[in-house]
Amino acid sequence: MNTLKACCVFLMITALMASCSQTHTPAIPSDPHSFSNPEEAFVEHLSLSLVVNMEEKILQGEAVWMIGKNRNAKELILDTKELEILEVQTSNDGQTKTAAKFTLGPKDPILGEALHIPITAGTRFVHIRYNTTPGAEALQFLPPAQTHTGRSPFLLTQSQAINARTWVPCQDSPGLRFTYNATVTVPKGLLALMSAENPTQVSPDGVYQFQMTQPIPAYLLALAVGELTFRSLGPNTGVYAEPTLIDKAAYEFEEVNDMISIAEKLYGPYQWGRYDIVVLPPSFPFGGMENPRLTFATPTILAGDRSLVALVAHELAHSWSGNLVTNATWNDFWLNEGFTVYFENRIMEALKGAEYANMLAQISLKDLNDEVRDMGSDSPDTKLAIDLAGTNPDDGVTSIAYDKGFFFLKTIEKTVGREAFDAFLIDYFNKNAFKTMTTDEFVAILREDLLVKFPGSEEQIGVDNWVYGTGIPDNLPIPQSDKFTNVEKAVSAWIAGVDEGDLGSDEWTSHEWLHFIHSLPDGIDAKELGRLDSVFHLTASTNSEVQAAWYERAIKSNYLKAKPAIRKFLTTVGRRKFLMPLYGAMKNTPGWEQTALDIYREARPRYHPISVISVDQLLSWQE
Ligand code: BES
Ligand code: ZN
User: Which CATH number covers residue 604?
Assistant: First the structure.
């Protein structure tokens, strides 16, 4: 064989080997929001011990990480932020430990600090003793006064997107999964719950053991500690809440059993064992968080009439879209949320009918239109395939991922038909369970497994435009809701002078009220709001969605009568979705700027760090 030939053969063999190894072990997508080095060494199991110190508002922790793959790595790199690392040891057997000369990298204001731990080829375990600090962005320690009973302190965590590293040193990337077990010690009388197999009874000594045998990414690590009690809602589901709220919570969530059956019929078996919900204090910064086996929920969805339970459908749906098939990096966030909004809509359609689902879709469209209007339709932030490198991934939590994602999937459904799309989705969840997904991979799978069967569908949908383009594609399927059309007619009638009492609003649900408020003309003045308020008592509403929409309207129209109610709302509720539009409206409405600062001064100490960061930025807050 001459040299040239030999070279060619060698090159061919190398190329073949490279392509084989690619198909067998897909490259780990690099994550701009993690310091970790998983290509060299990644961890596969965590043994965590935590002591919860409610007085000092810290956790004392020991994390033992088992290394899964170690490709001759010289070091294991973990993400940390605001942690006090006390001691690091390594061991080959978990028993004989050697002190490790760890170092911390430079502090990045968003990402925190890389923890470099020297290891050898034989290292199986790293043991880290550490304390959290009051700066931990995942943690909120609440005094008794901020709970429903008012009797006991409360602790809650929020790890998504990159806050797990503020309470556990970890490879904090959504593309990396691990199993865990934990021992958590809490003040006596309190119950501890995690995103794991959970107790239903208070442990007399305050010590709790947890097991999570399915691999999860770090952003799904979760802990809640408080005066909590359990109520079963079905064979495999139940709710935890403070004793004074448990009846209300059990009533509100009664439909969760049906939701699980519906979801399983749609996209395959629920794979996480139990599905429970814990109702948290009102400072919880989100509506819900899909921690596996245990959804975290805001009490602001306890409307008393089950009108806000779509949020439970949403978090349940994440048990497939997000927790089973997980966005590889935060740039692929729409894969988690867009799919989940779609799935939520399907669950609600099966549960409450097509008209109900259409109302939700219309609200979704309004949110999307508002978002794109605010961002500008050629802003790169309006792309599904977003680039968040160098920014806080929380900046990607916009209506684009949720609602543009949802309407992209609706467009596919409309083009290929529901039957084919459902079959595709079942197969997709099945094949990719416990795996991660990038946007590009999804687009390839969509083409290969679905669109090829429907010639012309690719162009009809405009896949590239939806995924990689800005703004709202003009083939977005506009949802139609007869109920909302009637509400719009009522708004016109009212403007034309029809008496408030004759608007046909007697039977309206909170979604219709929401649409009514949203449909009021921009220039409406305070006197007119007062007229509506005296008949419909909107300022005194107890539905958090109606309250938030009405208060925003009130601020923009300088309706001063609502001010005390707005103050009360903002000093009790810490849900970021409500805070941002309300503080935003006050900031931009003449005469309300100072009110925003006054209310925030009082409310700020009660908010979760995640909300504080967002509102600080919005109001350019200086201590
Ligand atoms: N996973 C999200 C919450 C989240 C996203 C936290 C990104 C941190 C970073 C959760 O599933 C969610 O979407 N919650 C919504 C619910 C709503 C869309 C029904 C919320 O909190 O409002
Ligand atoms: Zn979600």
Answer: 1.25.40.320
Which CATH number covers residue 256? Answer: 3.30.2010.30
Same domain? 156 vs 263:
no
Q: Is residue 488 part of a domain?
A: no
* Mean pLDDT along residues 491-513: 92
For residues 405 and 442, the answer to whether their CB atoms sit within 8 Å is no
If asked whether residues 152 and 206 sit together in one domain, one would say: yes
516 CB near ligand 1 (under 6 Å): no
- Nearest to 443, CA basis, from 338, 582, 319: 338
Among 262, 287, 319, identify where a domain stops.
Answer: 319
Range of the domain at 608: 520-619
Q: Is the CB of 161 under 6 A from ligand 1?
A: yes
The CATH number of whichever domain residue 54 belongs to comes to: 2.60.40.1730
The residue among 302, 319, 336 that closes a domain is 319
pLDDT of residue 27: 67
Tell whether 500 is covered by a domain. no
Verify that 417 and 343 share a domain, yes or no.
Answer: yes
**CA–CA separation, 14 vs 16, rounded Å?**
5
Q: What is the distance between the alpha carbons of residues 127 and 102, in angstroms, rounded to a whole number? A: 11
Provide the terminal-to-terminal Cα distance of the chain, rounded to the nearest Å: 77
Mean pLDDT over 307-335 rounds to: 98
Measured CA to CA in angstroms, residue 121 lies from 69, 96, 97, 178, 228 at distances of 10, 16, 15, 20, 45
**Overall number of domains in the chain:** 4
Paired with 78 in beta bridges are 115
The answer to the question of residue 499 being in a domain is no
For ligand 1, atom 8, the nearest C-alpha belongs to: 160
Ligand 1 centroid – CA 216 distance (Å) = 17
208-223 pLDDT, tens digit each: 999 999 999 999 999 9
> pTM of whole model > 0.85?
yes
Q: What is the pLDDT of residues 38-83, one digit of tens each?
A: 999 999 999 999 999 999 999 999 999 999 989 999 999 999 999 9
Distance (Å, rounded) from C-alpha 520 to C-alpha 76?
57
> 538 pLDDT exceeds 80?
yes
pLDDT band of residue 270 (cuts 50, 70, 90) is very high
How many Å lie between the centroid of ligand 2 and the Cα of residue 289? 7
Among 208, 219, 267, 402, the active-site one is 402
Give a yes or no: residue 502 inside a domain. Answer: no
Q: In whole numbers, what is the pLDDT of the chain averaged over residues?
A: 95
Ligand 1 centroid, distance to 286 Cα (angstroms): 6
